[in-house]
Write a structure and sequence with these properties.
Helix content is about 0%, strand content about 50%. By secondary structure, the protein is mostly beta strands.
């Protein structure tokens, strides 16, 4: 069973930067075989996918964060990152890390392991 713990959230002014981290722990798994993602949910809004990274390192971003956020992973450290640059007030949300075990190297985008989230607040 894999557990995910996010960290790095906090308050930042518009235009500032933050780096979120998500550490995976547990036993009986190989981190590099997991498809990983960052989601966010703002009050009164639906949860949305922010950035995805597959087992081959390919990345995908929501249009709202493209060219500002960077997702990366360190398989040696079982850690997922989200670098947030040029933060905007609309980025204010709870950010969640999510994982899915790839099947045959394929990511179905049905993430079934979730962290508890880390709050990001961007002030204008």
């Amino acid at each position: 069973q894999v557990q995910l713990v996010e960290s790095g959230g906090g308050s930042v002014q518009a235009g500032g930067s933050l780096r979120l981290s998500c550490i995976a722990s547990g036993s009986g798994y190989i981190y590099s075989t997991f498809c990983m993602a960052w989601f966010r949910q703002a009050p009164g809004k639906e949860r949305e996918a922010v950035a995805l990274i597959d087992t081959d390192g390919s990345t995908h971003y929501a249009d709202s964060v493209k060219d500002r956020f960077t997702i990366s992973r360190d398989n040696n450290k079982n850690t997922l990152y989200l670098r947030m640059n040029s933060a905007k007030p609309d980025d204010t949300a709870m950010y969640y890390c999510a994982a899915e075990a790839a099947r045959g190297g394929y990511c179905s985008r049905f993430y079934n392991v979730w962290g508890q989230g880390t709050q990001v607040t961007v002030s204008s």
